[in-house]
Please model this.
Amino acid sequence: MTGNSPPSGKPVGSVTKIVTTMVLLLFIGGGVYLTQRGLKSVEESFAATSWPTTEGVIVRSAVHTTETPIKKNGREVPNKKTKSYAPSIEYRFSVKGQALTGTRVTIDDESIGTKASAQAIVDKYPVHKGVKVSYQPDQPMISVLEPGSWAGSYRWFLPGGAFLLIPLLLLRGIWGSPSEPPLAEVTADENHLARPRLLNGVLMVEEIARWEPGQTVHIRRARVGFLKSIIAAILMGLVLGMFLGLLPAAYFLSGRGIIFIAKFYLAVSAALTLASAIGLILYGRRREYLFDWALGSVHWEIGWSGQEAPLESIEKLTMHLPAADSPRNPVVDSHSITATIQGKSYTLLETNGQGLSWQQTRERLKLSISQLAKALQIPWSEQQARSVNPR
Model:
């Protein structure tokens, strides 16, 4: 369902809402902790730029490989292990005559990553190379080679951001106030703001500016908000990215390390978010249809594009319904009426059956489509989604 389609049907129980909220709050708490840890890492990195420095020398530089057996059903899978790579750097320096050894390149080293990223750091600091070491004044054993670098902090920000964003969006959907009023309320109040979308007892997505088949029919659908489309696209990208990016990478590319898997997941999620945003923005464009029997024409606009054709070019009308025995899901349910004009199908009216049963929605849409088809003197048909319980 698109546009301003509201939730309807049986509401989510209070107990379910509370339990779900408690679980989501745990994720949010984890996201807050991870984000704070990342901010602390950034703060410490910048603080290190004011530390005193001394001369040092690299005494060990190699790529360290860690192999972890893969387990399935509690047992190790033979000849299958995940590998993670980390630069193993060690340098020696002295402070006030005290010989010290350091191993950190930055405040928050990348402990795991790809072999290429680890090798790049090793190549940067070969054995016997002289380096400048920054050390903490009151605890000189705490030292770094690159003060001010907080590149490793992203490993806190990435999961922290996901743990915050996704639960907050879900909580907004659970507790957000309904965007639609009850059908009975709209029907009873002739001055209700949603009244223009009421047609033959059904609350449509579109506004019915005029419904006089045989004279004038004017239908328009407002554009879906840009921010709403972007937020929905981000959520779709993150969720779909888990199935199309995170899980495949964890299974097929586990040998490249967790950092690579996280980057792969974010890259796939970003691509899916972009594709979803484009799709939602295009589908959510403003739509308007004007059937004028006096002029014998139909004019329609989708977004900024407008077209016009004779009424005779309308070939047929079709009523699309979800399966009658499918569980009611107001988020995705779509009852609609489409028109085939010059070989292309256009959605004229759409609803999720706000406050109505499947049969009630069907009968009232049937009245609307038959009125329009009779005035246009064209056939109409009904298409129902495949049953979820085939016999």
Summary: The CA atoms of residues 32 and 160 lie 7 Å apart.
